[in-house]
Design brief:
Length: 500
């Protein structure tokens, strides 16, 4: 809901470029907004899929969940919304994105549109689009990653051929439960009657076994070759091979060479190693760079600790310097402590995304880590930075001055990576107009030259929203739509006073 208003707010305020306005709109709005903006009930998604002829039935499907998991429908994206739909490791083209969006919205209107199904939001749209795109691409099978949990997730609207639960940790506690058992039960929602299930070793197996027994679903457990010494990549590859073995009877053309090649595929910012030649071009005055630079989006203690362990095994003689930014609400103190315990120094950073903690908040958490540290614990230095570009330069300068060889580890959250990647020389198109299309902002693009009275209101400490007052809003979005947006903003956020 806020996206309409935020976008229009920028339009009225001055003549700014379209991309700037769209980018600003999404930077100052939260990911979870009103029901109209984000949440889509399962029955709405299924109704649109049915109108499209159930494209998800045209190929085999692997549904994957876990505290640390991967898929070919990926959420959230790092830089571009097109990352959410990939075929053979290639992002959906801009042309195909527009095509499947238009077909999805046409089907939505045919079944009654907003009048009958008002809650067809961002996640619902992108999931339907992905299912349709995979059919149009004549995919043999698709890997669908849940957004959060399993049972209630937007992706849980189909019968899979194989379900995968990689592991279960204490993440998204407020949404999924307070114990591993609670979270495992939520994730077990991807298990379907009679369909095989592949699970990792680090989870409450009794919960999964009970669900599999009730649904008569064959259970396959995968363990690392060495429980005390394995990497995420090796273990994920082993899980992937098991899944492929279950699919292989229906795909006899898949051979061992294909499997070995396939498991090499990696998503960005999953212990991604940055090419140092690329960094040299961005920072030509730096005479000495770290021995290696890694980016990883792990945002729970287990994932962060595992990456540190792997980096230390790879570079046993090097010290680790870190840059961190955290998403509000993600166990920031526990996560930050792991960075401090494993780093010679931790540079605190933030960015444009509204879900990122501020430098002041990170400083408070660092202070708490030091105050609560036990006498025998050794913590690295906490250094306050600013935005991504400033903090990256700060860390590289400090690393250059260090007499020791260092490795730079950048992590903490998805929502920081787009900015840090740009600073590291990854010139990736964020496709703001594609995002605007899914959020139904296109009608507002005409408002670039709109003039009128604008009132800005700062609301509470961390809301970071701007609200406008102008009769022209209603003309653009429609009276009924405007009323719905207004009501939802007030009811669901309880942070915005919309003076209209």
């Amino acid at each position: 809901a806020q996206y309409f208003l935020l976008f229009l707010c920028g339009c009225i305020f001055g003549k700014i470029t379209r991309d700037t306005i769209v980018d600003e709109a999404f930077c100052v709005a939260r990911e979870k907004i009103t029901e109209v903006g984000a949440y889509t009930p399962h029955h709405v998604i299924r109704a649109v899929l049915k109108q499209l002829g159930n494209p998800e039935d045209a190929y085999a499907k692997v549904h994957i969940t876990g505290t640390n998991g991967k898929g070919s429908y990926i959420s959230p994206h790092i830089t571009s919304i097109r990352e959410r739909m990939q075929v053979n490791n290639k992002l959906i083209s801009r042309e195909d994105f527009v095509r499947v969006y238009d077909l999805t919205m046409k089907a939505y209107q045919e079944i009654g549109g907003m009048e009958k199904y008002p809650n067809f939001g961002f996640y619902g749209k992108t999931i339907v689009m992905a299912f349709l795109y995979f059919k149009l691409q004549k995919c043999d099978f698709a890997i669908i990653e849940v957004g959060i949990g399993g049972s209630k997730d937007h992706t849980n609207v189909f019968i899979n051929d194989v379900a995968v639960i990689t592991n279960v940790g204490l993440d998204h506690i407020g949404s999924l439960g307070n114990t591993k058992e609670d979270i495992a039960f939520q994730k077990s929602g991807v298990i379907k009657e009679g369909k095989p299930v592949v699970v990792g070793f680090d989870l409450p197996i009794e919960i999964i076994e009970d669900v599999c027994e009730a649904l008569e679903s064959p259970l396959h457990m995968v363990r690392p070759d060495n429980i005390n010494n394995f990497t995420f990549d090796e273990y994920n590859a082993k899980i992937a091979k098991k899944v492929i073995s279950l699919l292989q009877p229906n795909f006899p053309k898949i051979n061992d060479k294909d499997v070995e090649e396939g498991v090499k595929a990696k998503q960005p910012c999953r212990k991604e190693k940055v090419p140092l030649e690329q960094v040299k071009r961005m920072f030509p005055n730096n005479k000495k760079l770290p021995e290696a630079i890694y980016m990883d989006v792990g945002h729970n203690p287990h994932a962060i600790h595992k990456v540190f362990q792997e980096v230390k095994n790879e570079f046993p003689q090097a010290k680790i310097r870190s840059i961190v930014s955290f998403s509000i609400g993600h166990e920031m103190i526990d996560n930050l402590k792991i960075f401090l315990e494993n780093s010679v120094a931790v540079h605190l950073s933030t960015g444009k995304h509204p879900r990122l903690a501020s430098i002041e908040e990170l400083e408070e958490y660092a202070y708490e880590c030091f105050m609560n540290a036990k006498e025998e614990e050794t913590l690295g230095e906490a250094i306050s930075g600013q935005g991504a570009a400033f903090t990256l330069n700060q860390a590289l300068v400090a690393s250059q001055a260090s007499p020791q060889q260092e490795v730079l580890f950048i992590g903490g959250t998805f929502f920081f990576m787009s900015e840090i990647r740009k600073s590291l020389g990854y010139f990736e198109d964020p496709d703001p107009d594609m995002t605007a299309r899914v959020y139904e902002l296109e009608p507002l693009l005409k408002a670039l030259d709109l003039e009128g009275e604008v009132n800005y209101w700062e609301v509470l400490n961390n809301a970071r929203f701007k609200v406008i007052k102008t009769p022209k809003v209603e003309e653009i979005v429609g009276k009924e739509r405007m009323k719905k947006l207004k009501d939802d903003m007030i009811t669901d956020l309880q942070q915005i006073y919309l003076l209209y």
